[in-house]
Specification:
The complex is a heterodimer of chains A (215) and B (491).
Chain A lengths: L2 H21 L3 H25 L4 H28 L10 H20 L10 H20 L3 H23 L4 H29 L13
Chain B lengths: L1 H21 L3 H26 L5 E3 L4 E3 L1 H30 L5 H23 L3 H19 L5 H36 L8 H6 L6 H19 L8 H7 L2 H29 L3 H24 L3 H22 L1 H33 L10 H4 L1 H14 L6 H15 L3 H25 L19 H15 L3 H15 L2
Helix pairs in contact in B: 1-2, 1-4, 2-3, 2-4, 3-4, 3-10, 3-13, 3-18, 3-19, 4-5, 4-10, 5-6, 5-10, 6-8, 6-9, 8-10, 8-11, 9-10, 9-12, 10-12, 10-13, 11-12, 11-17, 12-13, 12-16, 13-15, 13-16, 13-18, 13-19, 15-17, 15-18, 16-18
Classes of the chains: A mainly alpha (215), B mainly alpha (491).
Chain lengths: 215, 491
């Protein structure tokens, strides 16, 4: 199998794992799915590093392994121990969400197709997937009512932009990736802390109940 | 000299923050805090002074940079950071005395206050567009604690919306950043240069215009969310009303502008890359929409801080409209409005701090007779509201008039009529608020008298700025604004 085929194959796995994160009702399992997805992301970084001679991506795959495969899922599971594991209601049925997801993936590939002039032409599928991942994360935030699920949505969006970054800007100075990754981790940490406080005050993570501030 | 300032400016609040976090005694933390805000104010003024006349400085291999645009932001961060920081002392002591917070919370408050200042400074002096993005995202994370400072249910709810919506919005800005970078990289083939704004602006006309358009849309959505443009503004009234009043002053007065100025950097690139029509039309639409929607919401709110928060959305809309009008006059008006709004809105938010300390509520239907209860606070509140409503003799009137004039000169007749109509609605809403809260008869059992001198001195200074800029624009400030306009238009 050629290098681009490997990358594109792995990229498609990202879509599958995203759907699993979005649709798994048990949050601990969703955290494992997220960890799995991050592992796929790490493998993509590695294959890009090998096949496209993108050396900086060796370091990226290492930092992503530490932070996204282990650290972030661990932080989420730690919070889950305090606030329970069940998701509760969702705004849409699974079938409706899947329908939306299919539409978003198609849209992403259409957008990626317009990037004719760039180096990504070879891995166009991966480019499409990175945008799709971003949009699927957004879909998760908009359709799920559970605060923890919305955090997962943010994590998916973040994985999506991380892949776009790897495809379009892997040669950028190292400080760039450090800055962006640090922010992403702190964002998750802060969201988890606030979610813990919300659970303490409202007794639920269903965001439909957070209606004290209106208008 | 200027280069050293670029290192010292972020270092001072960072060190102050770290010290505040580790020192337990709040008396000592207060001393550290005062030293920190004073140092920051002096350094800010020093940098602004050395930038006058179109000077620029680089530091850290071109990663840090200061020009006229930076100067405006640094001026605001320095002065508003100092004044609302000073105001914080009396405000927090009051909260401590009334059992709202514990001694330990005060150290944390000051720690995050300075961390927040640090992130804003970083966003102002970043030349690397990825670091610029990271700094703006970091402002959200640094200020999230301030929004959720009180242990109320509502504070947690506001902090949640704030972090989630802003982070998601900013994810779009990250895409815009990556697109701009890869666009530039295919032009120069130099990874370091393709990340630097000063290089991007030089090669703007070589960039692929289609890709730049796409990038600008992402940037507008992303930084627009953080700046509070409608329809991405929904987190703003919650966050700005739930934060402690001096933090609200900083959030509304300064932070919104940091995000807006990040967008202005891309606006400058887009002007050269894709021409003026595309970015200006977008800004005009978002600007007018923000003014219009906010004007109605100011009218229907009961909470005074929420009214003020919506008023911030309105004024960010006016600034965006000024940028949308474009040209030297439109952009000048937008920048002048940026400064005017910062001064006036920090005055107002700090004043609401005095009001809530006195009345124990933010509900406009319960606050009556401020004129009799606390005449000075009442006077400052009324003056601030008159100013923010856009009435002479205060500063905001001047920049609003300038925006309208610029628009009419550019042939934007109907958009300006629309703007004027929205401004009238907002004006009415704010005048009603004055007549209800400042006049009227106060509750019988409320003790008379002002809260404390520490809560009045910074407000007095802000009032002097507000009134002064209403009648006279000092030459250095005029120069500063001209420099900033030059940066955007590439003169």
């Amino acid at each position: 199998m050629s290098g681009t085929a490997v990358v594109n194959f792995l990229a498609v796995l990202l879509i599958l794992t995203s759907m699993l994160v979005i649709e798994t009702r048990r949050l601990r399992l969703a955290a494992y799915m997220y960890s799995l997805q991050s592992l796929v992301l790490v493998l993509i970084f590695l294959s890009l590093a090998i096949f496209m001679h993108a050396e900086p991506l060796y370091i990226w795959s290492f930092t992503a392994l530490i932070t996204k495969v282990f650290l972030v899922p661990w932080l989420i599971i730690r919070t889950l121990k305090k606030i329970g594991d069940q998701e509760g209601e969702s705004a849409f049925k699974t079938s409706t969400t899947v329908l939306f997801a299919v539409f978003l993936v198609a849209l992403s590939f259409a957008v990626a197709n317009s990037f004719q002039t760039y180096a990504v032409v070879k891995v166009k599928i991966a480019m499409g997937v990175s945008i799709a991942l971003f949009l699927l994360g957004l879909l998760c935030i908009l359709t799920k009512k559970n605060a923890l699920k919305q955090i997962f949505g943010y994590c998916l969006m973040e994985n999506g932009s991380h892949l776009t970054l790897a495809l379009l800007a892997y040669n950028a100075p190292e400080t760039v990736e450090i800055g962006i990754l640090t922010d992403a981790i702190f964002a998750v940490v802060i969201m988890l802390v606030i979610a813990g406080r919300l659970f303490k005050s409202f007794g639920t993570l269903d965001t439909d109940n957070y209606t004290l501030l209106k208008g | 000299m200027g280069e050293n300032l670029l290192y010292l400016l972020p270092a001072v609040p960072l060190v102050t923050a770290l010290l505040s976090f580790v020192i337990r005694s709040y008396r000592i933390v207060e001393v550290v805090h005062v030293a920190g805000i004073s140092g920051l104010a002096l350094l800010s003024l020093g940098l602004v002074k050395s930038l006058l006349g179109g000077q620029t400085f680089f530091a850290l291999d071109g990663m840090l940079y200061a020009d006229g645009l930076t100067a405006i932001l640094i001026l605001l961060i320095g002065t508003v950071g100092f004044l609302s920081g000073f105001y914080s002392i009396g405000y927090m002591r009051h909260d401590l005395a009334h059992g709202e917070v514990k001694e330990r919370d005060l150290s944390t408050y000051y720690g995050f206050y300075h961390l927040f200042l640090f992130t804003m400074i970083l966003s102002a002096i970043s030349n690397n567009i990825a670091i610029l993005w990271a700094a703006v995202e970091a402002t959200t994370l640094g200020s999230a604690f301030l929004v959720g400072f009180y242990k109320h249910k509502t504070s947690a709810e506001a902090a949640w919306k704030y972090v989630l919506i802003c982070s998601v919005g900013l994810a779009f800005a990250l895409y815009g950043t990556i697109l701009t970078y890869s666009n530039a990289f295919s032009v120069v083939q130099d990874a370091h240069k393709a990340m630097l704004w000063t290089e991007l602006i030089k090669m703007a006309h070589q960039l692929d215009p289609q890709m730049m358009k796409l990038a600008f849309v992402f940037i507008l959505i992303g930084f627009g969310t953080k700046a509070g443009l409608v329809p991405m503004h929904t987190w703003l009234p919650d966050a700005h009303s739930e934060a402690p009043s001096p933090a609200s002053a900083l959030l509304s007065g300064v932070l919104l502008k940091c995000a807006l100025f990040a967008m202005v950097r891309y606006y400058a690139i887009a002007l050269q890359s894709v021409g003026s029509e595309f970015p200006q039309t977008l800004l005009l639409i978002f600007g007018l929409l923000s003014v219009g929607v906010a004007a109605f919401f100011i009218l229907v709110q009961n909470d005074i801080k929420r009214k003020l928060a919506y008023s911030s959305v309105e004024h960010i809309g006016i600034i965006a409209t000024g940028l949308g009008v474009g040209g030297p006059l439109g952009i000048f008006a937008a920048f002048l409005h940026t400064i005017n709004h910062s001064i006036t809105k920090s005055l107002l938010f700090c004043t609401t701090g005095n009001i809530t300390m006195k009345y124990g509520t933010r509900d406009a239907t319960k606050i009556r007779g401020m004129k009799k209860v606390a005449p000075l606070t009442g006077f400052l509140f009324a003056a601030g509201l008159i100013a923010v409503a856009g009435s002479p003799p205060f500063n905001i009137f001047i920049s609003e008039l300038m925006t309208l004039t610029a628009g009419l000169k550019s042939g934007l007749f109907w958009p300006m009529i629309l703007l004027l109509l929205f401004l009238v609605i907002a004006f009415a809403a704010l005048v009603i608020l004055i007549s209800e809260t400042v006049l009227g008869s106060p509750p019988e059992d409320l003790p008379r008298g002002e809260t404390n001198w520490m809560g009045l001195l910074p407000l007095g200074i802000l009032f002097v700025f507000m009134a002064g800029l209403g009648i006279y624009l000092p030459a250095p400030l005029n120069q500063l604004l001209q420099d900033a306009v030059g940066v955007v238009l590439g003169h």
